[in-house]
Task: structure prediction
Amino acid sequence: MKRERITRVLIFDNLAEPTKASVSGKRPREALEKLISAGRHGVTTATHFNAGVRVSDSIFKLRKVGIPISAEREPNSDGDGGTHAKYRLGCKVEILSDAQGPAHDHSPPQHVGA
Result:
């Protein structure tokens, strides 16, 4: 079985205790790092990622494990009338560690105190 990098995170989503979650894959990990670094300014596909990276897929995977991420539409700077998404974390998220695990290990979020 193929093994994939698993990133363990803590989600501080206004609950009494932070929530633990596991994020699978290189691209979601990179997206999470960029979201954490950007803070309240957020990230966009055009300004924070290489061409061809499916950012929406990484955002989907991060949301699936319980990480709140907002998407705000804003106009493109080239004046073509189009828009793009700016993604922001909805709470503090802390990366704990990396490990090797089975591919597609999308464990549901677990509360730390549970």
About this structure: The chain has three helices and seven strands.
